[in-house]
Amino acid sequence: MRFFLSITTGFLFWNASLGAPAPKLTGAPDLNGLGLSYTLKKSTDPIPNRIHVLRVDLALNKVRPVVVLGPDPDGDGPAEVSLTDPRKLASSPSALAFVNTNPWDSFPNAQGKKNRNWYSGQPVDIHGLAGTRGKLRSTVTPNNASVWFDSQGRVHFGHQPDDKPQEATTGFQLILSQGKLTVNPGGARHPRTAMGTDEKGSILWLVVVDGRQRRYSEGMNMHELASLMKELGCWSATNMDGGGSSIMGLLDKDGKMKVMNRPSDRFLGRVKIRPLPMVLTIAIPENQQR
Question: What pLDDT does residue 32 have?
């Protein structure tokens, strides 16, 4: 049996007291009013984990998923994007939240070696379907790991040739399909990022599990992650890029983007934010901005 302690906020910052809701501050959008709800779940069984859950009600049409990609460093060349600090990618005034999305890889040098130390500005190749505003930066043979959004903002899993994604991302594998787990028990535990939806595609769950941090949060295997997504209410869910890439951001009470989880990368013992090729933001549509 898994034990969870949940802390749910009604605004875009933690209400650690768990008492009466904190008053809405000027410049801090109301999460509930926009259809967003953030929860921190603390699991102790079988190992300690901190799980960050953002539930988004897309049916309200008050927010939209928007993919933000780093710059293209060489136009028609082989590189699709330059790695960029995810906080910079999510710096638009309309962005309320963000998570990491697609995996990627670097290009081999003259000796055939790849630099996987990941630095800002590094040219990389995005794995899977990736695009925004109806324009794809990266294409892929149709597979069930894609998570994309149509012109109405509804979420879909998998990609068919006749589909026209408005916003497109891709993970590693589908872990929940038609309410059933598609992965076997066991396997390595790592930091994880997952996206899931209900059967109608109107509710989106964005989940980040911290990992590789002993006694604080040790991560999940695929089966544990899929079980978590099913418990949340997902009908479909995909495992996105994870490890040191797993990150979730939300606006704080001052309207500034705050990293809510504790990424696993370190530099001189301190948390290091890994640069990414792209993020999925939850944003206020342009026609609804103040």
Answer: 84
Q: What is the DSSP string of 69-88?
A: EPPPSSTTSS--EE-B-HHH
Contact 77, 246 (CB under 8 A): no
Q: What is the DSSP string of 143-193?
A: -TTEEEE-TT--EEES--TT---SEEEE-SEEEEETTEE-S-S----B-EE
d(CA 187, CA 14): 33
Classify residue 23 by its DSSP letter.
Answer: P
- Structurally, the chain folds into a number of domains equal to 1
Give Cα separations from 204 to 35, 95, 216, 236 (angstroms).
10, 16, 27, 10
Identify the H or E element spanning 100: strand 95-100
Work out the burial of residue 233: count CB atoms within 10 Å of its CB; fewer than 13 is exposed, 13-18 middle, 19 or more buried: middle
Whose structure tokens read 């696993």? Answer: 264
23 preceded by a cis bond (ω within 30 of 0): no
C-beta neighbour count of 85 within 10 angstroms:
14
* Nearest-5° Cα angle at 85, 80 to 89: 70
Count CA atoms closer than 13 A to 192's CA, side-chain side. Answer: 30
Residue 253: what pLDDT? 82
Host domain of residue 20:
4-288
Q: What are phi and psi of 166, to 5 degrees?
A: -85, -45
Average pLDDT for runs of 10 along the chain of length 290 = 50 34 54 93 95 97 97 95 98 97 96 96 97 92 86 87 86 97 97 97 97 97 98 98 98 90 95 97 80
